[in-house]
Specification:
GO molecular function, one term: ATP binding
Radius of gyration: 24 Å
Number of strands: 13
CATH topology of the largest domain: Rossmann fold
CATH class of the largest domain: Alpha Beta
Helix content: 25-40%
Family: Belongs to the ABC transporter superfamily.
InterPro entries: AAA+_ATPase (IPR003593), ABC_transporter-like_ATP-bd (IPR003439), ABC_transporter_ATP-binding (IPR050763), P-loop_NTPase (IPR027417)
Strand order of the largest sheet: 5-6-7-3-8-9
Distance between the termini: 32 Å
Number of helices: 10
Protein name: ATP-binding cassette domain-containing protein
Keywords: ATP-binding, Nucleotide-binding, Transport
Largest sheet: 6 strands, mixed
Length: about 325
């Protein structure tokens, strides 16, 4: 069995922050007695990712997702524990051979020069990564065609729509054909059509090249459309690892079934509430079987079993300990 392409073993990382008092007297006090505090962003996280896998990282703001991405890409060093990519590469050493094999797209950090066409940035990246001209031209033509931005290559970035800029940021991360692609909030603020285009492209790229993709997003559609496995992080700790189906099955707690029938029921059983002529809600708390003839049922859905509801439950202060 091959070794995982990413291996994180009991990694920890803490930020040191400083508090600043207001006013001149506060500034004078801070000059000699600066107060600092330590914030644990990643706490004892272990995680393995296999080559060709798409892993979704889920968590609320400040949960530690982006910090974990920064540990894997070498932006930050782990305080304790071990983070390795490609079996033996320590990311924070930032060896050129390692950087050549990863691509990074951070939603809050742009690679594109605002007043220049995207092509100028991509040509600069061609020189940084020493990409042969023919290979660069062919790959760029493929990427821009698949993401439907070929006509915008020579347009200044400031004149592009948000969706077009996001697509060019993605192309910047992919231009050197990395083996691992890190995407932090890749579809934030863009329309559903552009999202669908990016989903289709990334799934096809993963299928054709076995590129490993690590994805963080607050848009659960990104995770549901792309991720083969998810890891949920809360307050710096990993609280779940598995499939999205497994996540929903484990944490869904509301036993209400929404049932649509092919016509009104002549008799409404106990525990069933009629919403409209063909729409019913069933309290399944104590039921082993449905009290409605299956031949009349068109669809059955469990309310609050969607990923958004599960994550709201997990990230609330009142979320139950598991």
């Amino acid at each position: 069995m091959s070794s995982p392409i990413i291996s994180i073993d009991h990694a920890n990382f803490s930020y040191v922050t400083f508090t600043k008092q207001s006013g001149f007297s506060g500034a004078w006090h801070d000059l000699f007695h600066r107060q600092k505090s330590t914030v644990a962003a990643v706490q004892d996280i272990s995680l393995q990712v296999n080559r060709g896998e798409i892993l979704g990282l889920l968590g609320a703001n400040g949960a530690g997702k982006t910090t974990l991405i920064k540990l894997m890409t070498g932006i930050l060093p782990a305080n304790t524990g071990d983070v390795r990519l490609f079996t033996d590469q320590v990311p924070f050493r930032k060896q050129p051979a390692f950087l050549q094999r990863i691509g990074v797209m951070l939603s809050q950090k742009s690679q594109l020069a605002w007043d220049l066409p995207a092509l100028d940035t991509l040509v600069l990246l061609r020189e940084i990564y020493h990409i042969p001209h023919d290979q660069f031209n062919n790959w760029l033509a493929f990427l821009t065609k698949e993401l439907a931005v070929t006509p915008q290559l020579h347009v200044p970035v400031r004149k592009l729509s948000l969706g077009q800029r996001i697509k060019f940021e993605l192309i910047c991360a992919l231009i050197h054909r990395p083996e691992i692609l890190f995407l932090d909030e890749p579809t934030i603020g863009i329309d559903v059509s552009s999202q669908a285009n990016i989903y289709r492209f990334l799934k096809q790229l993963n299928h054709d090249t076995q590129m490993t993709i690590i994805l963080t997003s607050h848009n659960t559609k990104d995770i549901e459309a792309l991720a083969q496995r998810v890891a949920v992080v809360n307050h710096g700790k990993k609280i779940f690892e598995g499939t999205t189906t497994g996540l929903i099955s484990r944490y869904a707690t509301v036993p209400i079934l929404e049932i649509v029938t092919d016509g009104p029921l002549t008799h409404i059983p106990v525990h069933v509430r009629q919403v409209d002529p063909t729409h019913y809600e069933v309290d399944a708390t104590t039921l082993a079987t449905l009290p409605i003839d299956p031949r009349q049922i068109l669809s059955v859905n469990r309310r609050n079993s969607d990923l958004d509801a599960i994550l709201t439950q997990l990230f609330s202060e009142e979320a139950p300990k598991r």
